[in-house]
Write a structure and sequence with these properties.
By secondary structure, this protein is an alpha+beta fold. The chain is built from 9 helices and 50 strands. The structure holds 2-acetamido-2-deoxy-beta-D-glucopyranose (5 copies). One 2-acetamido-2-deoxy-beta-D-glucopyranose binds next to loops.
């Protein structure tokens, strides 16, 4: 038997680690063995009792947990109705002193006396109301383990013994979880990155029997291979070589247990993790953008924990106007970029980058090459071989229009001074898509040129290019062209020309009917020249001509200025219409006068037929009929008539009219030209043969005399050949 038992012992020790309750069982077996030998060897430990008169029930094994309560059973029910309990005694182990006693020998069981040993220290009470009765130990201590015997003495029946073999288990202490360095972990650990190694150590100490220490992930057993150190510390380690996304918030529990009566003690940790973003994309399709119109682009990143941060980049430049939004579950980050593209952005790479800042190198990006549509951008310039400073009349000129556009332009146009320009070979304009050719440019081609181009985004216009065509001087329109000057009076004649370049040299010339002289007294200033001219004789009145010359060439048509005597300026500058009117009036007056005179003469002739008339009639007749006579007898009639004439001409001059008159000449003269200046400054000229003086030229003068009576009469004697003799001036007094 012992051999078998020992063998069993040997065998069982192998299981000790796995089944902590086995030692208790073994003890029970050992107790059974001992009990057997006790029975054989006739009672050990039940004092002085008569063994033969007693009944000993087979022993009962119990397991209790230290710290809780435990009921040790003992059947005190009498086998017969008429019997009752007298005395109940509890013993422990080999002790002969009862641990607890219930004495009902003196009366009813209900009034029985309870007595407990000091060892129990008030922790025990025998309850007789239970069936079977129990000795309750509360709290149960580790040292309560042992063999108990309940001895029940009845009043009549034989004494009965109940053996209980009590095993006390002590639960282990709460385990602790730490890393390999002994740093304790609390409930939430991490955060770890994907791929990190997780190493967890669980330790517990205490407990009887030695507890098992297991690792669990939720309800799955991960590891039950624990070690027990010499100090009684139980340790179990687990390692997860590479944490994955699914390990987020995994709960790893370490559980220590050495009985099935109490809930195992455990400790758990929850794993927190960081994730790199998985996906990033710019939403919407990749369409060309319009320059200068703001566009909203949305980028979405998923899979990052904590949420990804999104940045936008244009090439290597970080963009600023962005708004970020995070979904409620925290896995989706959305970023909105408000972006106003410019034409310069065309071809640049726009990207959206999502990154978990806690995981270096976790950035991922999505992007596209920008395709920007914009209004054509034009640059106009003169053809490469041309220089603005050197374009002269009749040169060929061309412009080049440089175009940047996306999409490409559909139409190119040209403008000159804001008017559209088309090909016109008659005036030498050739438009050929990106260039404009002007053949034989003229001064009229001077001005502002632009090119325009149109695409789907709109129409762009280039810068202005001012085409300067250099030209030879031309007389400027609207100048003063008539200058009046008195004799010996200096007159400043201004000659203004248009020219490019305006550095102009001038030449002046004076023309009158007889001669042409170069004028040298002038001053040039740019495109203006001022000549100072002094007419000294009447022959110095005439026209002044002026020519300008610049590097392009000389003026073809000169500027012409007329110099007139100062008194006459008025008349010349008078409107031609008025001159015509005045001429008509004068003509009419003259005709009327002739008619009146003719009528008078007829009347006289009729009245005085054959009579020799006084001087007027006399004069009229020879004047009309004896022209040749007067010519033949020129001197003598002239002498006679001289005094006659002068009063006629100088009319009723009270002064000596003939004073200064060359009487001799007058008698010889074929005609007399009388010139008077009237109050308007007009010159009235009358040419008369001496004998015609009777035609009362004073009447002509008189017409104007009402303005001012003072006259100057210039007498211009003219002979038959028409050549003038020395003129002279008389002041005359009209008789008004
Ligand atoms: C207690 O003993 C009585 C008398 O022998 C018996 O009838 C009863 O069944 C026993 N009770 C228990 C719980 O064993
Ligand atoms: C407790 O363990 C013991 C021994 O291993 C076994 O006999 C008993 O049935 C178990 N009790 C429960 C409730 O599992
Ligand atoms: C070409 O230019 C000439 C002169 O300026 C003009 O008379 C003519 O109408 C133009 N032709 C066209 C087709 O525009
Ligand atoms: C100008 O137009 C012609 C046809 O219209 C085309 O073949 C040529 O390529 C164009 N030139 C430029 C520089 O666009
Ligand atoms: C000026 O005189 C010159 C030489 O006599 C002559 O050739 C020219 O035509 C004259 N000009 C004008 C405007 O009368």
């Amino acid at each position: 038997m012992c051999v078998q038992f020992c063998a069993a012992m040997e065998r069982d020790t192998i299981f000790v680690r796995r089944h902590p309750l086995l030692p208790a069982v073994l003890m029970v077996l050992a107790a059974v063995a001992r009990c057997g030998s006790a029975l054989a060897g006739n009672a050990i430990g039940i004092g002085a009792s008569n063994a033969s008169a007693e009944i000993t029930e087979p022993p009962q094994a119990l397991v209790g947990v230290a710290g809780s309560s435990l009921d040790l059973p003992c059947n005190i029910t009498a086998p017969t109705i008429d019997d009752s309990v007298a005395l109940v005694l509890w013993y422990k182990d080999e002790s002969t002193t009862p641990l607890y006693s219930l004495d009902a020998r003196r009366g009813q069981l209900e009034q029985a006396r309870h007595a407990a040993s000091d060892l129990l220290g008030g922790r025990a009470y025998l309850s007789i109301t239970h069936r079977p009765s129990t000795l309750r130990l509360k709290p149960l201590l580790e040292e309560d383990e042992g063999q108990y015997r309940c001895r029940v003495d009845f009043k009549k029946a034989r004494t009965r013994n109940f053996d209980v073999i009590l095993t006390v288990v002590v639960p282990p202490k709460k385990p602790v979880i730490m890393d390999q360095n002994g740093e304790l972990f609390h409930s939430l650990i991490g955060p770890y990155n994907e791929g990190d190694r997780l190493f967890l150590v669980c330790e517990t100490e205490g407990g009887k029997p030695t507890p098992t220490l297991t690792w669990w992930r939720e309800s799955v057993l991960l590891d039950d291979s624990y070690e027990v150190s010499s100090e009684g510390v139980v340790r179990n380690e687990i390692e997860i070589t590479s944490l994955q996304r699914h390990d987020l918030m995994a709960v790893f529990t370490c559980q220590a247990s050495n009985n099935n009566l109490t809930v195992p003690v455990s400790k758990y940790v929850t794993v927190d993790m960081n994730f790199r973003p998985l996906e990033v994309s710019i939403e919407g399709n990749r369409r060309p953008l319009s320059a200068n119109s703001p566009v909203e682009l949305v980028c979405r990143a998923t899979g990052s924990r904590p949420p990804a941060t999104i940045t936008w980049w244009k090439g290597n430049t970080k963009m600023k106007r962005t708004k970020e939004r995070i979904s409620i579950d925290g896995y989706v980050t959305t970023s909105i970029l408000i972006f106003t593209p410019t034409s310069e952005d065309s071809g640049k790479y726009l990207s959206c980058r999502a990154e978990n800042p806690l995981i270096p190198g976790s950035a991922i990006e999505d992007g596209w090459k920008l395709d920007i549509n914009y209004v054509p951008q034009l640059t106009l310039r003169l053809g490469s071989k041309l220089r603005h400073a050197h374009i002269q009349e009749n040169n060929d000129v061309y412009f080049e229009c440089n175009i940047r556009a996306s999409p490409w332009v559909s139409e190119i146009g040209w403008k000159f001074e804001d008017r559209e320009l088309h090909t016109n070979t008659t005036n030498g304009v050739i438009v050929s898509n990106q260039s404009l050719v002007l053949q034989k440019v003229q001064r009229s081609s001077r001005g502002k040129y632009t090119c325009t181009a149109t695409n789907s985004e709109g129409t762009g216009e280039s810068n202005d290019v001012f085409l300067r065509v250099q030209f030879a001087p031309l007389c400027k329109a609207g100048q003063k062209i008539i200058y009046g000057a008195a004799r010996h009076e200096a007159v400043r004649v201004v000659c203004e020309v248009e020219a490019d370049p305006r550095e102009v040299s001038f030449k002046w010339q004076f023309n009158n009917t007889a001669e042409s002289l170069e004028v040298v007294t002038f001053v040039n200033e740019g495109a203006t020249s001022t000549a100072t001219y002094i007419p000294r004789t009447e022959f110095d009145y005439g026209t002044l001509l002026c020519w300008g010359t610049n590097i392009v060439g000389s003026q073809i048509e000169p500027c012409i200025y007329t110099i007139v005597p100062a008194d006459n300026v008025w008349q010349v500058t008078f409107s031609p219409v008025l001159i015509v009117l005045i001429s008509i009036v004068v003509g009419l007056v003259f005709v009327a006068m002739v008619v009146v005179l003719t009528m008078k003469c007829r009347t006289r002739n009729d009245r005085h037929k054959g009579q020799i008339l006084p001087r007027k009639a006399y004069k009229l007749q020879p004047g009309l009929g004896k022209e040749e006579d007067s010519n033949e007898n020129g001197k003598s009639p002239g002498e006679e008539k001289g005094p006659d004439i002068i009063p006629d001409v100088s009319i009723p001059s009270e002064q000596s009219a003939e004073e200064g008159l060359d009487k001799q000449f007058l008698s010889d003269a074929a005609s007399l030209q009388l010139m008077g200046v009237n109050g308007l400054g007009q010159t009235i000229t009358t040419i008369s043969r001496p004998r015609q003086m009777e035609l009362e030229p004073e009447a002509t003068l008189r017409d104007y005399s009402h303005i001012t009576p003072q006259k100057r009469v210039k007498v211009l004697p003219m002979d038959e050949t028409g050549s003038l003799h020395r003129p002279y001036v008389k002041n005359i007094q009209t008789d008004v």
